[in-house]
């Protein structure tokens, strides 16, 4: 016969304060666990989504980011002419030859000077990246010192509104429009004319080049051919998605390892807390248990009842923790990405997977924390229990 | 005749439970002369333990005064009352109430920590008290290593070690078998007869009551 | 017999529960110690800054170089007692996805650089050898040990900012003057960089990455900064001059979001310590309600009862704190091994130890608050009625 669930429920209620404390402890742990998962996902979502499936990025071989890469004009022209490259609406090759710079801007709230990426682009950049849409003002004109900025940047930094002038590379650059890049890495950038920027910054070569393939299946063939050609042997081709995944690698790994360590430690603490509560519960209900057994309930049922009690505690704590963590979805984090040496903004991304993972984690904590005490409860002899009264 | 060591005048006490007042004692008047051994008897709920608690200064009446050894304890503040108890009261409980983490010696020593005695002086008092109750050979035993009767005797030793003015005992034999109960009662008698300790005992055991000089009955909060 | 003895025996009455509580607290204190150590390590560069050094760089960002020809003008500014320059080289060693292969690599002016960084201690003969040989390099002790580099070894890097293969011969190994110094850096000759780039990429000029200045009187710093920056305001490369501390701080600030969250987490951890301990003390105090009533009967005052409860709480908290601290050291070491290259200097500072113990003690006090108040407020009569 099974002990009714209401017994479990009412036992928890009877010792409200300690129940509350244990639930709070579990909730806290699950909150941190879920938060870290959400953060790593958010970072990768931002960076990975930045890449389009049929875009390919060209960097110098062994460069770890666009900032430290060079693609010279010759190489760029050769790539332009490859047959695998798709055509833009105007019939010309759908490519963008780009220069990466980093400038210092002051944050609005804290006044702290922060590195922000400036990307010099070619006319086809917007067509190449359909996720980037102009929301305010207009696009910059080729051949001028006009730029457009991500709305995010305009929002977070001083003096980046439409009409404002940015001073760098020995000249002033006027913001004429704002764009929205749908939560990708481009949301932390400022775009301008590559040729103008190169001239002003005294850079004779591009940083990188992005091109669209007619057919993504042809990537391997293109890559092999270019590698064999001595003129382009230093150029490395990568699918854009892969490049951005690698960009997030260092940061994501850091967040995950940190998060993992913190969570493991926290969970050990929470399990210990649950164990203490459950042992106390058992000790206090020795007579009750004896009575239940005398009434005919099996040892198994006693074990199950206490285990269930522990699991209920943990799952409630887990649900509270996940609930709190979901509030994080409204928060945005912006910090320096190690690899690009400039600011990247990203959010906490909640997914069913994270929820399931967090609740499972809570469940495991409840089982592990409650198991030994439940065994002790089950082992109590009827006579010993009743005599204790 | 010297004034009674305990003088209770017009004492009433009621308890609050949820918003109801439950009367327990009603206009009690009682005198206990020094050196007296008095038993308070009555059915369950008659208020005898409450009366004892008032005499021992661990509870306060709603009305009336309780004067013990010349001090009206109803007028003392909490902190003063505690000091007063340490000096004047020795309490023996039904369930012994020894601290399980302390040995017999240490339990008896406990109240002496509140007195201005040196360690050597404390040792004297403890050993004297424990030999008086016949447990000199169990100084360093823990309560769990003692029988019920022995535990109660340690409790009595603890009660008398600071040489209190009066001993109060709440059902001291209530949890003991016949033989142990007799031993304890003999001890109390001896304390009263040889050492002139005033003893107020609550009991509903007639054998225990027999050993006292005076028996008073309480019923429904009133002294008969 | 004393209150302490009673407290000690009471604490271990329920051995299992007390041990679990101590373990729980130890776990939390260890996490606290780890996280604060990480925050400290992040700020290591700031803390290690010399009080008399300044950095002059391109105003807009560090990635823009400053003309080498500026150096004479800068050196002549009153207050400047020493000058050198360096370029961040970067480059890739071996497999770039292995964090272990990342360490800071600079091209520095061989004659002046080490004079401005006395905390990098180089044996004089090694410094001589370094200066004499064009493609020589000097490594920090830690990076040399981690990779097994010895004097005379050749290190091959694949350049990125300065493309192509680069080979350097190890001619010196520096040690830090004190434990807070970064021993993972690598330096080679600036002149070598200049020559090689000229050869490999004719038409590409090499300028200085940033200047390092020595300003002996801290009071002079503001004036020096103003003087230098005004000099180049309208040039092609306007400068920003700041103390080394401010320079390092600006990097840390860029990651402030992460650092702030770590600090928040460390506070949460203190909360967890509190919860675990409060849970236990609450239960313990409740169990002893009758005993406290008996003590009060005997004449013990409220303050004595408080001492018992607070004493027990502090004892357990302290034990947990000490154990947790003991565990922090190996955990920090393990962390350093799991993420090599992230933090050149990572060690448990005395301040962290003090904070961790302080957190444990404060938790001990806080956890005892409610049980103490309850025990004091409970009347003797109700206390005696309680069944343990």
In summary, what is this structure?
The complex is a heterotrimer of chains A (389), B (224) and C (388). Chain A is of the alpha+beta class. In chain A, 51% of the residues lie in helices and 20% in strands.
Task: Please give a structural write-up.
The complex is a heterotrimer of chains A (389), B (224) and C (388). Chain A contains twelve helices and twelve strands. Chain A is an alpha+beta fold and 389 residues long. Chain A has two domains: 185 residues, no CATH class; 160 residues, no CATH class. In chain A, the strands form two sheets. In chain A, strands 1, 2, 3, 4, 5, 6, 7, 8, 9 and 10 form a ten-stranded mixed beta sheet that branches. A two-stranded antiparallel ribbon of chain A has the order 11-12. In chain A, helix 1 crosses helix 10 and helix 10 runs antiparallel to helix 11. The longest helix of chain A has 45 residues. Chain A is elongated and about 95 Å long. Chain A starts with a helix and ends with a helix. The mean pLDDT of chain A is 86. Chain B has 224 residues and is an alpha/beta fold. Chain B has a domain of 152 residues: Rossmann fold (3-Layer(aba) Sandwich). Chain B has seven helices and ten strands. In chain B, strands 6-7-8-3-9-10 form a six-stranded mixed beta sheet. Chain B has a four-stranded antiparallel beta sheet with strand order 2-1-4-5. Chain C is of the alpha+beta class. Chain C has two domains: 172 residues, no CATH class; 178 residues, no CATH class. Chain C contains 15 helices and ten strands. In chain C, strands 1, 2, 3, 4, 5, 6, 7, 8, 9 and 10 form a ten-stranded mixed beta sheet that branches. In chain C, helix 1 packs across helix 13, helix 2 runs antiparallel to helix 11 and helix 2 crosses helix 13. Chain C is elongated, with a radius of gyration of 29 Å. The two termini of chain C are 24 Å apart.
What would the keywords be for this entry?
heterotrimer; A: alpha+beta; 2 domains; two-stranded antiparallel ribbon; 12 strands; B: 224 residues; alpha/beta; Rossmann fold; 6-stranded mixed β-sheet; 4-stranded antiparallel β-sheet; 10 strands
Query: What share of the residues of chain A lie within helices?
Result: 40-55%
Individual helix count of chain A: 12
Weakly predicted, low-confidence segments of chain A: none
Rg of chain A, nearest Å: 30 Å
**How confident overall, as mean pLDDT of chain A?**
86
End-to-end separation of chain B in angstroms reads 24 Å
Secondary structure tally: strands of chain A: 12
Q: Major sheet of chain A: size, sense and barrel closure?
A: 10 strands, mixed
H/E element string of chain A? HHEHEEHEEHEEEHEHEHHHEEHH
Question: What is the overall number of helices of chain B?
Answer: 7
SSE run of chain B: EEEHEEHEHHHEHEHEE
Supply the number of structural domains of chain A.
Answer: 2
Classify the oligomer.
Answer: heterotrimer
Question: So what's the overall shape of chain B?
Answer: globular
CATH uppermost class of the domain at 34-46 and 78-216 in chain B: Alpha Beta
* Broad structural category of chain A: alpha+beta
Mean pLDDT of chain B, to the nearest integer, reads 91
Query: Can you summarize the main beta sheet of chain B?
Result: 6 strands, mixed
User: Which structural class matches the secondary elements of chain B?
Assistant: alpha/beta
Strand order of the largest sheet of chain B: 6-7-8-3-9-10
Number of strands of chain B: 10
């Amino acid at each position: 016969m099974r002990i009714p669930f209401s017994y479990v429920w009412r036992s928890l209620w009877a010792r409200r304060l300690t129940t509350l404390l244990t639930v709070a402890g579990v909730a806290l742990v699950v909150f941190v666990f879920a938060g870290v998962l959400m953060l790593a996902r958010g970072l990768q979502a931002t960076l990975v989504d930045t890449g389009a499936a049929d875009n390919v990025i060209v960097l110098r071989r062994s460069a770890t980011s666009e900032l430290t890469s060079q693609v010279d004009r010759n190489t760029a022209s050769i790539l332009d002419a490859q047959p695998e490259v798709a055509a833009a609406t105007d019939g010309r090759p759908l490519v963008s030859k780009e220069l990466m710079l980093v400038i210092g801007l002051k944050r609005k709230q804290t006044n702290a000077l922060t590195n922000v990426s400036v990307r010099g682009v070619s006319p086809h950049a917007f067509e190449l990246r359909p996720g980037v849409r102009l929301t305010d003002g207009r696009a910059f004109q080729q051949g001028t010192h006009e730029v457009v900025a991500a709305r995010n940047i305009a929002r977070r930094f001083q003096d980046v509104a439409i009409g404002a002038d940015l001073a760098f590379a020995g000249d002033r650059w006027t913001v004429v429009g704002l764009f929205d890049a749908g939560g990708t890495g481009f949301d932390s950038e400022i775009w301008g004319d590559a040729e103008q920027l190169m001239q002003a910054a005294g850079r004779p070569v591009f940083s990188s080049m992005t091109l669209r393939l007619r057919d993504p299946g042809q990537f391997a063939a293109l890559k092999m051919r270019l590698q064999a050609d001595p003129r382009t042997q230093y150029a490395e081709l990568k699918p854009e998605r892969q490049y951005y995944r690698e960009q997030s690698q260092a940061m994501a790994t850091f967040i995950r390892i940190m998060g993992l360590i913190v969570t493991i430690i926290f969970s050990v603490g929470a399990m210990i807390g649950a164990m203490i509560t459950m042992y106390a519960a058992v000790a206090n209900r020795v007579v009750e248990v004896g009575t239940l057994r005398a009434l005919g309930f099996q040892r198994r049922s006693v074990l199950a009842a206490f285990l269930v009690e522990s699991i209920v505690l943990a799952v409630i704590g887990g649900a509270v923790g996940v609930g709190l963590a979901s509030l994080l979805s409204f928060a945005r984090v912006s910090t320096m990405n190690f690899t690009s040496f400039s600011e990247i903004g990203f959010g906490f991304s909640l997914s069913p997977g994270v929820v399931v993972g967090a609740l499972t984690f809570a469940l495991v904590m409840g089982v592990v924390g409650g198991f030994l005490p439940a065994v002790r409860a089950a082992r109590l002899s009827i006579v010993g229990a009743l005599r204790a009264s | 005749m010297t004034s009674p060591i305990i003088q209770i005048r017009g004492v009433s006490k009621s308890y609050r439970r949820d918003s109801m007042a439950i009367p327990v004692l009603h206009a009690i008047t009682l005198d206990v002369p020094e050196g007296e051994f008095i038993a308070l008897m009555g059915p369950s709920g008659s208020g005898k333990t409450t009366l004892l608690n008032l005499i021992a200064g661990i509870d306060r009446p709603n009305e009336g005064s309780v004067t013990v050894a010349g001090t009206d304890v109803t007028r003392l503040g909490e902190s003063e009352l505690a000091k007063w108890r340490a000096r004047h009261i020795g309490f023996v409980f039904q369930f012994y109430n020894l601290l399980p983490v302390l040995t017999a010696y240490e339990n008896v020593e406990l109240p002496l920590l509140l007195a201005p005695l040196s360690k050597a002086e404390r040792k004297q008092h403890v050993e004297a008290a424990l030999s008086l109750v016949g447990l000199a050979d169990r100084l360093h035993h823990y309560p769990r290593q003692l029988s019920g009767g022995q535990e109660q005797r340690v409790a009595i030793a603890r009660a008398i070690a600071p040489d209190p003015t009066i001993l109060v005992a709440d059902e001291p034999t209530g949890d003991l078998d016949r033989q142990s109960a007799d031993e304890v009662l003999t001890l109390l008698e001896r304390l009263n007869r040889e050492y002139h300790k005033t003893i107020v005992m609550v009991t509903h055991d007639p054998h225990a009551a027999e050993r006292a000089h005076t028996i008073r009955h309480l019923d429904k909060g009133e002294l008969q | 017999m004393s209150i302490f003895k009673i407290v000690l025996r009471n604490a271990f009455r329920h051995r299992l529960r007390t041990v679990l509580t101590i373990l729980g607290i130890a776990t939390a204190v260890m996490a606290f110690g780890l996280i604060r150590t990480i925050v400290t390590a992040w700020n290591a560069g700031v803390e290690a800054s010399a009080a008399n050094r300044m950095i002059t760089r391109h105003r807009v960002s560090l990635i823009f170089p400053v003309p080498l020809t500026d150096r004479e003008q800068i050196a002549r500014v009153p207050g400047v007692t020493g000058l050198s320059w360096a370029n961040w080289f970067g480059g890739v060693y071996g497999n770039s996805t292995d964090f272990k292969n990342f360490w800071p690599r600079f091209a520095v002016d061989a004659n002046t650089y080490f004079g401005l960084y006395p905390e990098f201690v180089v044996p004089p003969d090694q410094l001589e050898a370094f200066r004499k040989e064009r493609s020589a390099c000097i490594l920090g002790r830690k990076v040399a040990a981690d990779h097994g580099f010895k004097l005379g070894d050749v290190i091959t890097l694949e350049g990125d900012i300065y493309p192509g293969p680069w080979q350097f011969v190890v001619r010196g190994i520096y040690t830090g003057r004190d434990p807070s110094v970064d021993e993972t850096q690598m330096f080679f000759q600036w002149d070598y960089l200049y020559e090689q780039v000229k050869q490999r990429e004719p038409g590409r000029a090499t300028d200085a990455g940033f200047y390092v200045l020595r300003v002996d009187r801290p009071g002079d710093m503001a004036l020096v900064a103003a003087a230098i920056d005004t000099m180049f305001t309208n040039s092609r490369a306007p400068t920003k001059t700041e103390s080394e501390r401010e320079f390092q701080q600006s990097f840390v600030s860029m990651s402030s979001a992460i650092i702030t969250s770590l600090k928040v987490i460390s506070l949460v951890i203190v909360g967890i310590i509190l919860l675990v301990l409060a849970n236990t003390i609450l239960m313990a105090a409740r169990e002893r309600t009758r005993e406290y009533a008996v003590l009060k009967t005997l004449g013990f005052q409220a303050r004595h009862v408080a001492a018992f409860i607070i004493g027990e709480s502090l004892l357990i908290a302290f034990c947990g704190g000490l154990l947790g601290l003991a565990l922090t050291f190996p955990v920090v070491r393990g962390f350093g091994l799991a993420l090599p290259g992230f933090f050149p200097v990572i060690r448990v500072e005395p301040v962290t130890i003090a904070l961790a113990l302080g957190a444990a003690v404060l938790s001990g006090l806080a956890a005892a608050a409610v049980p103490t108040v309850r025990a004091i407020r409970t009347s003797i009569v109700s206390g005696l009625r309680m069944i343990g």
